[in-house]
Structure of Copper resistance protein:
Amino acid sequence: MISLSRTALSLFTAAGCALLSTAAFAENTIKVVETGEGGGTMGLSLEPATVKAGATVFSVHNAAVGEEHEMIVVRLKSADQKIPLEVTKHRVDESKLKSLGEVEDLKPGADGQLKTRLKAGTYLVFCNIKGHYEAGMQDKLTVTP
Ligand SMILES: [Cu+2]
């Protein structure tokens, strides 16, 4: 009886370890949905918009019908940092921000993924195709320790 329950216990532990290693990369999964067509209102939503520090997968979906989008993740120096704009180009000045990576050229209806490790702080998630940031394609992500 004792040896049987030991076997059961070790099986249980092995199963537990397998589960842990599968989930090892994705402590957080953030769903990002991008919407909007050229000349109209555009949007970018994060679900959830607050996560704990750690390995994170951004799973991006471009829900637009005819418009290409992209997703860039930058870490801000503070929650109220002013976002630098290249006014005449209608884009965010990425050279003045610390990028953690991006998903480029996301066709209408397409999905993309960005894997990164997030430290505590405030992040800006946005689309930097001309005019899209100004049209509403941005949201802030809060990462807690
Ligand atoms: Cu866009």
Observations:
- The longest helix spans residues 2-22.
